Amino acid sequence: MTRKELDPPNFQQMTAGASNVAVYPHEEFRHAAAVALASGGITRAVTLKVNGPARQLDVDTRATLLDTLREQLMLFGTKKGCDHGQCGACTVHVNGRRINSCLTLAVMHDGDEITTIEGLAAGDELHPMQAAFVERDAFQCGYCTPGQIMSATALLKEPCGPSEEDIRECMSGNICRCGAYPHIVEAVKSQRAPAK
Amino acid sequence: MIPFEYAKAKSETEALERGADPRAAFVAGGTTLIDLMKLRVMLPAALVDINQLPLNEIQLLPDGGVRIGALVRNSDLAHHDAVAKRFPLLSQALLSGASPQLRNMATVGGNLMQRTRCYYFRDTTYACNKRQPGSGCAAIDGFNRIHAVLGGSDHCIATHPSDMAVALVALDAVVHIKGPGGERKVAAGEFHLLPGKTPHLETVVEPGELITSVTIPSSPFAGHSAYVKLRDRASYEFALASAGAALELKDNRIYSARLVLGGVATKPWRSSEAERVLTGATAGEKTFHAAAEAAMQSATPRRYNSFKIELAKRAIVRALDNATQAQPGRQV
User: Fold this and answer.
1) Which residue intervals of chain B bear CATH 3.30.390.50?
2) Which of A109, A116, B5, B175 has its CA 20 to 30 A from that of A43?
């Protein structure tokens, strides 16, 4: 549920109870249900296992997984680039598979395990793919980067040929306006198991 | 999006019951539906989530064919070892489509049901006979670069965008549909409708019906097959012109052939003209060029897409060449 759905904008911010996803511990937006009702939306309860813990939420049926992650769960790492499945900035893992979170609804994922970019690192220790992107300077503005890294980590477990061309093809669902592609390919290459 | 009710069907029976609601739409991968709901092109007031139905198996049939559940994800189908070996055309077509993320979400049934990428269809501020019968077609006198040169009418020239559907038509696939009236099957080549005077009717699926599976028979031409897709970018883009070719070859002679076009027509375009040229002929450049000419003979160029006629011919020749070179996979 986003401000876009409202006419006129009319939401209330309510402070939440303690959140065990300690990204912004001081506040969690729980206005979504109130907002949905104000705009005629129909809400449903859904449980999402995001980066580990199960979170019970009330969501507007129209809320995409992307908007729910960002605006209800305050996990801003996943980005909205196009909102229409054409750029890959919203890539997350659902039950271990990479998908575009902008083209699926939160209500469709009751009980599913969802991993966002925030869920890759172990505390302060970067995931090896994150470290590879840093070491190889594989981003400029950084906006596409969470989606790139989520795709890259998923790619390691998918059938993908051995060459650089294959990496490019398997990463082709993530667009980078800054053109960081060459170093993105290097980063992915560095994490692949040597060809058998 | 407009507000909608949501229910997760736990059985085919429940799906069909809920699907009988005229406001309802089935949702599987959601990659077409959610996209178009955001654009307010599709406005179901009730969504029936069918993802839990047991329709996600790939069954190898003893006669060499395959039965594919409607909920099988595009990526799983493309990477299935036996499918890739028995039907390389299908695997190639699937892998040329969309992106890895989208292929992980999209289902076989949904891919068949996907809608055109016509800019005017997708923008509700423009006249569109698909969205609103009788309102006109903004593409015919508009920017129609991506539109059809085959199968169009005065009412609609919107291209059908699916790669998988082209392969299924070429492979003589059969689509199995279940509805309140029972089960029926439709040849893939008859699944999609020409726009004619009724562009709002795109497939043979009636409201409330569910695609349950697709079967592909074994055939003598499936082994030597290939898909060639030409487009503005190297990947992650719809076809400007594509060709799916399948040849039954013996000592360089073509005994039977299938040639289906994508990106240039209002539905996956099986070219019987090209197949007539190919059947009985010797595989080679001369035959392939003749087939390409025959295929595009009746094409109608529009103001901005006349290049598609030549582009399609080249896709055809390349696909036929690739199909000839293909090594048929060993029987799995």
Assistant:
1) 224-325
2) A116
